[in-house]
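RETRY 2/3 - previous attempt timed out on the joint model. Re-submitting the same 485-residue input unchanged.
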Amino acid sequence: MNLMLRLLSLILLCNLFIFTSCKKSVPPPAPVLPVPTDRQLVWHEMEQYAFVHFTTNTFTDKEWGFGDESESVFNPTAMDVTQWTKTIKAAGLKGLVLTCKHHDGFCLWPSQYTEHSVKNSPYKGGKGNVVDEVEKACRVDDLKFGVYLSPWDRNRADYGSPSYVEYYRNQLKELFAAHKPVFEMWFDGANGGDGFYGGANEKRKIDGKTYYDWPTTLNLVREMEPNVIFFSDAGPDIRWCGNESGYVNETNWNTITADTLYAGKSGIQDLLGTGNENGTSWIPAEVDVSIRPGWFYHAKEDSLVKTPQQLFDIYLSSVGRGANLILNIPPDRRGLINEIDVAALQGWKKLIDGYFKTNLALNKLATASSFRGNSVDYNPSMVTDGDKDTYWATNDEEKTGNLVIDLGSPKLISFVTIQEYIKLGQRVKSFSVEIVREGKWVTVAKGTTIGYKRILKIFPTEAQNIRIVISDSKACPVISNVEVY
Ligand code: FUL
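RETRY 2/3 succeeded.
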């Protein structure tokens, strides 16, 4: 062979080597649209955080202040916001959303646009700024900080006219200039109509859809805080779950068609709680619920604080169904989270830590009916590797499939957690969890949607092999994580 031929065959060999070593890269599944934005993904990973309702209502024993309360009633006797953040942090919550202004219009910060605020209260001789103090305490305890500013204002004389919208925006500017970062902005859709309104004492009706000109207001906030998540009945980033009882429906799509939602429109509760399989926007549900019957502290409700078990059930019907939980913990008249609530939170955390102590599936062998292109990149052990960025996926045409996880030896199991890789959209419509009994696979739990996270409670039973059967999916299933407890 002459030199030329030798050289040519060497080049061919090199090319062949490059070709074979590249072959293992099989393209990932195409996303099923819509998919979450980056800021929504960060929000999904928070899973649970606190709501804090605190204002003149705490001192007047009301749920909705009329707007005529004297600023002098706001007088906590032993205020300690670090006790709030320490309690919230210890409960395993990741952030805090504060009612900077509730429907009564009283501002927890000395707003330059109104006299109805802490600056005219006895608190710290009028020099206090609860919003600032809470935000600073959040930073110390590594909690994310969020803002609730009620659009409805029963104190303002001009509520219902364009100048109020200007006032509301000025307050948003004040808050967002002074506090960064803010992870969530909570726009409450409630509007009962009647109020003080600067002494008019009347009922006022606004058109919730047009009055506030939401697109302009949201743009204004977004410019100041690009990563903020907007909550409202209708989104745009996250939606109300349709109730205040602590659950989202078992079938919970993160997708919904935004036009179909509007505050005040009757009959949308169920839609909010379920979402829409073919919805055109990714607007996941947030479950808002209070640890007490009311949103504000009332001594008469001390015996009605939810028990650790009730809180755990709420955890399962919110986080366990792929929603986020915002749990309200209202400080009492001292300005402290009451001992009864603290004890309930501690008991709840103990239950969660106890039940989810050791993931029996971590790094255990997983097999599957098939995996995408037989590529190592999508092999079933991706669901037990503890890495949220890897996943098991099937070929495009396979919309069903199953995974078997071998725990190594028989173990007592009570919970199975499954997560979809939602960066590529929500897919699964129906699935079951099976174990072997007397040589046969039997179903121990069933579900519809999975989404970011699904936790299934199983009647405690012994099993070595756990089979997850995906029986229906919008496209090939893409599962990032399975945990067994
Ligand atoms: C509702 C309000 O009317 C309640 O007072 C509370 O703030 C709750 C979180 O939202 O719409």
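The radius of gyration is 26 Å. Closing ticket.
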